[in-house]
Amino acid sequence: MVSAPVITTVLVVLSVVYGVQSYAFYRDAIPNGHAVTHPCDKSKIWFGVGHHSDLGGDERNAFGLDFRTAGFIWTRDLCMRDSDNDGQTNGEELGDPLCVWTRGGTPQESSNITHPGFKTPVTDFPYDSADSTTLNCARMATRCKAFSDPDVQYVDLRIPSGNESRVPAKETTYYNYNFELPHDQEYHAVGFEPILDNLNVIHHFVMTTCVNPVPTDRGYESFNVLPGCESTMYVWSFGIGAECLPEQAGVLFGGSEPRFVQLQLHWTNGQLRSDYRDTSGVRVYYTRKLRRYNMGSLTLGQLNLAIPPQQPSVIAASTCSTSCTKSLLDQGAIHITAGFPHMHFLGKALLVDHQSGSSGHRKRIMDDQVYNYNSPKVYEYGPSYLQVKPGDSFHTVCEFNSMGRNSTTRWGFGSYEEMCFAFFRYFPKRGELSCLQADDFDFCFAVSQVDGPRCSFFAYSENITQTVNRALNECDDVITDVQRPTPSTVPVCSPTCLSQIDRVLKAHRSPCQQTRHKSEWNVLNSLLQPRLATLDKALKHCQGTGTVSLGEQSSPAAAGTAASAFLVLFASAFLALFSAF
Description:
single chain; alpha+beta; 8-stranded mixed sheet; 6-stranded mixed sheet; 11 helices; disordered C terminus
C-alpha cells in the first residue's frame, strides 16, 4: 500500500514580476531591513521580512500584508502598527521607535532588531498552528540526519568570485561552470544543500554529472549542457531547499563513475544592473559507505507549448504511455521517492496521474490545483514510496493563465517563456529517464540509450525541438508582422532572432543524424516542418536586414540569404536520412 503523498511547502528565494513578489531590494525600504534576525536563531538573517519563509517568495506574513497596504513605503501609520500583535510597534521592532526614519537614512537604533511579522521573543509565544504570527522553531531546525553522520563529508561547489561571478546586465542568463568531485573511490551523495548568494538574481540551477572530462577553469554562457553532461544530480528552483535522499539510496560518483559535474545557473536580472555578482552553488554531502541502491531521475511533461495571449485558461497535456514505460523500465520496477512541479509565471495548475498497467487503478500523485511559481510544493512518497512497473502510464496536465500577456508564449528556458514539467527522484537507477511529448510525439528515453559516440537520437530530437521553439520565441515580432494582412515594408529581424536561427542550422549538423530510427525521423520531420516553414516565411520577409552572421556568413545580406535557406537544408537533411534506410 503506497502512502499518500506528503506535501511539503518549501523555501523560496525570489520572484521577478507576477504573483507574490519577494524582491530582495524591498528591504531597503524599511529601517534595518538587512538586519532582521531569525526569531528562532539570532545568528541568522530573515531575508524575506514580509514573508512566511526566511528566504521570502511565499505568502506574505502579517507585516508583509501591512507593507503592501502602505504601498511598499515606510509610512508613519505602518511604523505605528503592531502587525504581529506582540506588544511592540513595527517601528520599535525595526529600530525606528519615533517613526522618523526615511529611506536612505540611518535608523535611530541598530541593535536588538526583531521581526515585525512574528511574535518575539518566541519563548513568550508558544507555537499555535491557528496563529500565523507564531513560529514552530523545532520544525524549522530539522535537518537531514545524514548531514551530521560522522561518516558523511561535504564539498562546496560555488561560482568563483571575481570576473566569473559577474552577472550580465540582461534579463535572462544561463551560466555554466564545471567542477571536479572527489574521485579516489566510489562515493554516494546522500544530500544536497543550496548555497544562495545574490538573492536579487538567482532563479534556479541544475547540476549534472559528465561522463567525459570537462574544463574546470572557466565559465561560459549557454542554455545547452555539454555533450555527455545530461545526467541530473541535483535541481534547485524556487521552493526547493536542502534535499535528503532516502536512507537506502544515493547518487553515485567517483572511482570509475563520473567525477565531473556541470553547474548551470539561471540568473534573472530584471533591473538590468551591471554591478551584480553571484557566487551561488551547491553543498554536496557524501559518504564512503555505499548504500544499497543508486538514485535516478524521471522527467514528465510537454515540450510543445504555444499559449495564446489574454486567455484565463489554456491546457497542455502529455502522456507517458505503457509502451514507453515498458521500454524505459525493461530492467524492472522503480520506486519514486519525491517529485515537484515546474512551470513559469503563467502556471496555474499542474496535475499528474499514475495508472497501473495491471489493475488499471489510477491515482493522483501530484495535485497542484493552485500552482504558485514562488512557492511550489515538493511531494514526498515515503516511507513505502510509489512503485512504478513496466506497462504503467502517467498523464500530466498543465494549466496556464495568459491574461497578462499580449503575445503568444511558447516553450523556452527564459523566465517569461513557459515550461510544463514534473520532476521525480527514484531508485534503483535505470538511467536518467525522460518520458516527454512534443504534441503527440513521444520522447521516451534514458540517457544511457545511445546510437553512437556521444549521441542519443532521443536526446537530439528533444534538443532540436527545443531549439526550434526557442527560435520561434525570439522571432515572435517578425512572425507576428508577416502574418498581418499588410506586413511592414521595412521589417527588422533582431540579432537574437538570427542568432537563434543560427543555432537551428548548427543543430541539424549533429552526428546524431546518422541514426537508425527511420520511423521516429518521419514523425519528427512532420512535427517540425510547420514550425520551420513559419520561420522560413518570416526570415524571407526580413531577408538582408539581419545584423548577426549565420554559420560562416559575415555580411548582413549573406546572413539573410543563409537564414532563408535553412528550411531547404533541413528538408535535404531529412531526405538524405530517409534514403539511407
